[in-house]
Amino acid sequence: MIKVGIVGGTGYTGVELMRLLAVHADVKLEVITSRSLDGTPVADVFPNLRGVIDLAFSAPSTDAYKNCDLVFFATPNAIAMTQAEEILESGIKLIDLAADFRIKDIPTWEQWYGTQHACPGLVEEAVYGLPEMNRDAIRSARLVANPGCYPTAVVLALLPLLANKLVDPKTIIADCKSGASGAGRNANTATLFCEVTESVNAYAVSGHRHLPEIRQVLQLVDANADLVFTPHLMPIIRGIHATVYADATFYADATGPADKLQQVFEDYYSDEIFVDVMPAGSHPQTRSVKGSNHCRIAVHYLERSNKIVILSVIDNLVKGAAGQAIQNMNLMFGIDEQSALQAPGMLP
Amino acid sequence: MIKVGIVGGTGYTGVELMRLLAVHADVKLEVITSRSLDGTPVADVFPNLRGVIDLAFSAPSTDAYKNCDLVFFATPNAIAMTQAEEILESGIKLIDLAADFRIKDIPTWEQWYGTQHACPGLVEEAVYGLPEMNRDAIRSARLVANPGCYPTAVVLALLPLLANKLVDPKTIIADCKSGASGAGRNANTATLFCEVTESVNAYAVSGHRHLPEIRQVLQLVDANADLVFTPHLMPIIRGIHATVYADATFYADATGPADKLQQVFEDYYSDEIFVDVMPAGSHPQTRSVKGSNHCRIAVHYLERSNKIVILSVIDNLVKGAAGQAIQNMNLMFGIDEQSALQAPGMLP
Amino acid sequence: MIKVGIVGGTGYTGVELMRLLAVHADVKLEVITSRSLDGTPVADVFPNLRGVIDLAFSAPSTDAYKNCDLVFFATPNAIAMTQAEEILESGIKLIDLAADFRIKDIPTWEQWYGTQHACPGLVEEAVYGLPEMNRDAIRSARLVANPGCYPTAVVLALLPLLANKLVDPKTIIADCKSGASGAGRNANTATLFCEVTESVNAYAVSGHRHLPEIRQVLQLVDANADLVFTPHLMPIIRGIHATVYADATFYADATGPADKLQQVFEDYYSDEIFVDVMPAGSHPQTRSVKGSNHCRIAVHYLERSNKIVILSVIDNLVKGAAGQAIQNMNLMFGIDEQSALQAPGMLP
Amino acid sequence: MIKVGIVGGTGYTGVELMRLLAVHADVKLEVITSRSLDGTPVADVFPNLRGVIDLAFSAPSTDAYKNCDLVFFATPNAIAMTQAEEILESGIKLIDLAADFRIKDIPTWEQWYGTQHACPGLVEEAVYGLPEMNRDAIRSARLVANPGCYPTAVVLALLPLLANKLVDPKTIIADCKSGASGAGRNANTATLFCEVTESVNAYAVSGHRHLPEIRQVLQLVDANADLVFTPHLMPIIRGIHATVYADATFYADATGPADKLQQVFEDYYSDEIFVDVMPAGSHPQTRSVKGSNHCRIAVHYLERSNKIVILSVIDNLVKGAAGQAIQNMNLMFGIDEQSALQAPGMLP
Question: Would the pLDDT of C26 be above 70?
Fold first, then answer.
């Protein structure tokens, strides 16, 4: 059994980790910490876990994780970096679901996250936990930076194209739509039911923290890659829909560009269990991945404009957070990558 | 392996059966029929099942189920009754998720369902598939009438009280709120998104088909039981919230009526894995059982009016339909009652 | 022109007052106060009012309302009572949309609102602003206590029955469903989008502040009246649906009880422009009154149980708050009671 | 009084026309036709109109509109074209809310709408009813083609840029999000509540009927204009959010490009009452225009990519359909352009 701790279990990624781990045959949840809820049974806060998780929240402390093989940080940004060194030195592996170890360039991180990095020394070691890019490195990692939700959806949409030089890497636009759970569980007027439902809006058009993360990952594949990234808030709980545009590097008079694109995607992801390339002409719905760890992708070619449009959907709390973290854990401990992640999406 | 067929797999109970059975270790799905979609892959209609269910719909026929040990009817009312005899005679067990075998009194059934019963001879044999009442009978049944969604929520709320003579059985009011998936997946203006969302209404106040079903079941426990039943449509996909009122037969000057009630419920359901009696003073949310087979119940005592108020929540597609059907199947085949039903509710 | 001030304009009743007053031909909005947003243009907070309301919030002060003929308090409970005397003494009329002047019995008020009443002397003078009960008194009032949202829906459902002695006044149950805007615009985890949507729950089953208010009003009509009141939270922005049950005092063998009930309601409300008695057998939807000042009511008679079931819907922000306040203002200033309240509900 | 008829009043644009016209001081609604609902009171279908619209639907016929000054066609596509000639010859003006007269090139129309045009002779005469482009022509028109919802949002976002040559007209991408009311009120599995809520998806990526309409309108301003257009379905009733991208023709080293853009938009729309250019840096929400005839626009400049991003929101049923049709009617009859359109958006 893998003994697991969760730091900061009161948010949506925390409860999602618990929901998924509850059916993981090889995991024993040892400890869940929360400073504010020390002593409160987890199931009092999250009644879906009644009868499933019997732990109470405990205060975070040096000792709290001592029996763990792995600790997930489901905390706000800039927390994991203050404790990572001590935990890793105790021989405990760490997956950070926040952003502390995602950006390799420290000044860039500090600019976007507005604070000094407390642990720059570990940033280089940290493996970016996107298994579809870094599976081998994740297997041997002790510190994994779990990707952001938008980056997961956007990068998976673009990898086959950039790897095959099928798009001009400077023409990428990622118009992304996210459910409200991405904004977290903190009390906030802007994410009240009456503020979010029956409305749609863009936000952070001038720059969102996931932009430098996506750019960094894309540039590992093509050094010239860059993008415009526009996030939008949707009145749904779960789901990211990335609509990604890029100029094709071939032209419509070439033979069967649409068929070729379809084949490129199917080939690229033929061994990936959690990436589902849908049939040509498809329009994936976010609900098809609600609660599941899958990314569903469809690729379209627009002859008139010579543009490629990729539609990519994930559940931001699963493949965009807790599910991908468990996928990474499975890899780090050499067990079946799908463990606890087999359940299909919940539709309707 | 239990070899299973599903008749009428294109509705919400059909897809929910498939979602849940997909992770059932002891079940092999043999056949899914649909007259209108013969030949269409299931996953083309329900993309959440891509990579999980590889079958295509096939036309219903005498032969279709010949390899099955059990057939689920996820059809509209009045279909299973036309095929049940033939199926049972082939030695195949049958669970009907519709209403054909729920009502023991044939004239009552015919009055409420507006047609002649095609198979009255099997009605007496059919076991009403509420395991919390009829577990032993279900174990040996070959024909199970899976309960309606409202009846499941209401009956579980009342069983401990009626069995212990704690309420006046003639004073029951069940004010019930249901998600829209209960109305099915047929094209219908009244259940369009723009008609249902941002609105709430009662319906069938003068009489709903689930009323005689609830009455029949309650009268098995107390022959004098009767009730007023008011269903309401809520803008949620899944969930039933039953708010049940009844006059207490004891009075407030008795010692600790509220504590006693709490204890009665906890004792009554102490061995029931799928009924969760919440702490005194609780208000269960339907989302705490979203996707799960649990019924969560809280009991309140109002001293001033000497009324008992029971709050009972289920997922209408799971404990109110497909999940309970699988629970019944598990019992009929002598396997763990929880098989395929362990996953906690999806929150948020 | 009636010169109007609004105290506490940052909540949902505040913005709804402004939305409705913006098209009131006889009203000039003079001042809107908010301590926290002093100096911020109203339209920066509520962009629907851009180009319509040019005022900025100003700090509350003795002088702020000096040019007003009337001040609306759209504040939390226990604010208006601290300023009412001074305002009234300046010759300014006052409508309190909170609960400070609704309950005539001071100890009852203090028990339910958990604080000492700052201004008990004005409570007796205050007129309960339900025009369908108190139209004449409202016309000459200088202080109006605007009713709560639940009380408005429930009382309008019961007035014709109690006035005509058609129900046993001790058997009333009001099972009420409310949209989330009733919970206000303050940051609160419990009313986040992801906590409210796709879920339904009861709350305050053991006692809600609107219970003594409803009881007091009903007892003005029948001194023996009492009720069980259960509020529920629904995932809609606007709307209250009251499902009210009571035992009929006549019996089913009487001639045409259902027809008689229908007639009683139609007669009782024949002169009321904002109460719409729907045809027999109707099931009003909350969306039919979305944004409008109407209450739609349907009455059903259940012969078997000799129960009457009344369905009553309002928009909690309009007839349940801001609209009714404007209706009261119209009466107090002798102008057309419908001014600014003519727009039909927004459907879909 | 302008005497008005509505053809096909059973859909969402029909009921929205009635909601808005109900408070129009200068309009008398004479007739509302529906073949299927002949004789049914309008208020039975749309209960929000009880007490407001006393008409019943009547069968469409040659005589039905004989007393009208103007007829609105709120019908499906390809209906108005079969009756327009006869109506216009009777001296009755006509506004078609469907697409029959929007596309000037008949073969293009026939290709996208899949049928032969019944009345090509009137297409040239028809005025495209976007007042911000064609106000004078609308004033003297007898036949107005009311714009599509997406085209309204996208064109208003681009007019100032194309008119001022500030974008490369071949680089336009319009990523648009629409509420479900745009799909109409016909029974359809794909737009059921349980299919639409809690999900987001793109549709018609390879080509949508509004694409040639947008292209035609943009090319009137810049003959080289073309675009990629991707519609998405959102789980909201009302609202379109257009996120429009285009390459700037100037560069970041120019002086204050962002300020200049803001000024260009403010100047361009300075006299337009229904176009609201929001402050620099804004992110308009669709709910800010819910029920109102406004289009709210914000413009952003991204220096790194030299892209302009315009955010444009409308209510698809108001400025995108019925409201704009009334605005056109007001112009055609020389009355205040804002008549019946003054109400602010309903927020929350």
Answer: yes
Spatial contact of A252 and A306, defined as CB atoms under 8 Å apart: yes
Contact B17, B46 (CB under 8 A): no
D301 vs D225: CA distance, rounded Å: 20
Structure tokens at C264: 């009683």
Do D57 and D30 form a contact (C-beta atoms < 8 A)?
no
Q: What is the dihedral of CA A6, A8, A9, A11, to 10 degrees?
A: -140
**Beta strands at A2-7 and A70-73: parallel, antiparallel or unpaired:** parallel
pLDDT tops 70 at residue D36: yes
Torsion angle, CA of D42/D45/D47/D51, rounded to 10 degrees? 10
Query: Which of A:208-267 have CB within 8 Å of B?
Result: 237-238
SS (H, E, C) A63-83: CCCCCCCEEEECCCCCCHHHH
Mean pLDDT of chain B, nearest integer:
96
Instruction: Flag if C348 and B241 touch (Cβ within 8 Å).
Output: no
Please classify residue B118 by burial: count the beta carbons closer than 10 Å to its beta carbon, then call 0-12 exposed, 13-18 middle and 19+ buried. middle
User: Do the bridges between strand A2-7 and strand D143-145 make them parallel or antiparallel, or are there none, so unpaired?
Assistant: unpaired
**d(Cα D318, Cα C334) in Å, to the nearest integer?**
34
For residue C277, the chain D residue with the least C-alpha distance is D50
CA A257/CA D303 separation, integer angstroms: 33
Parallel/antiparallel/unpaired status of strands A172-178 and A240-247: antiparallel
Instruction: Give contacts of D189 with chain B, Cβ < 8 Å.
Output: 185-187
C4 bridge partner residues? C29, C70
> What's the CA gap between C74 and C96, in Å, rounded?
7
Smallest Cα distance from C48 to chain D, Å: 4
* B149 is an active site residue: yes
- Residue D149: its pLDDT value, please? 98
pLDDT value at position D61? 85
Both tokens of residue D48?
Answer: 């929000």
Of B22, B285, B342, the CB nearest to A344: B22
Q: In chain B, helix, strand, coil percent, each to 5?
A: 35, 20, 45
Question: Does the pLDDT of residue A306 top 80, yes or no?
Answer: yes
Read off the pLDDT of residues D323-346 as tens digits, 9 standing for 90 and up: 999 999 999 999 999 999 999 999
Domains of chain D, each with CATH number or no CATH? 2-125 (3.40.50.720), 150-316 (3.30.360.10)
Spatial CA neighbour of A11 closest among A38, A45, A39: A45
pLDDT per residue as tens digits for the range A262-272: 999 999 999 99
Single-letter amino acid, residue A92? I
Name residues whose C-beta falls within 8 Å of residue D335's C-beta, 6 or more positions apart in sequence: D2, D26
Q: What is the CA radius of gyration of chain D?
A: 20
Q: If you ran DSSP here, which 8-state letter would residue D222 be given?
A: -
Alpha helices in chain D (DSSP H): 12-21, 42-45, 80-89, 106-113, 120-123, 131-139, 149-163, 193-196, 210-221, 257-268, 323-332
Q: In what order do the strands lie in the sheet with A227-233?
A: A201-202, A227-233, A172-178, A240-247, A307-314, A295-302, A275-277
The minimum CA-CA distance between D285 and chain C, rounded to whole Å, is 8
What's residue C255's pLDDT? 60
Q: Say how far apart CA A22 and CA A27 lie, in whole Å.
A: 8
Residue A213, min C-alpha distance to chain C (Å): 26
Query: Alpha-carbon distance A246 to B229, whole Å?
Result: 57
Q: Say which residues have a Cβ less than 8 Å from residue C275's Cβ, sequence separation at least 6.
A: C132, C156, C269, C294, C295, C297
d(CA D179, CA B193): 10
- For residue range B293-317, what is the model confidence (pLDDT) as tens digits? 999 999 999 999 999 999 999 999 9
**pTM higher than 0.95:** yes
Choice among D149, D176, D194, D295 that is catalytic: D149
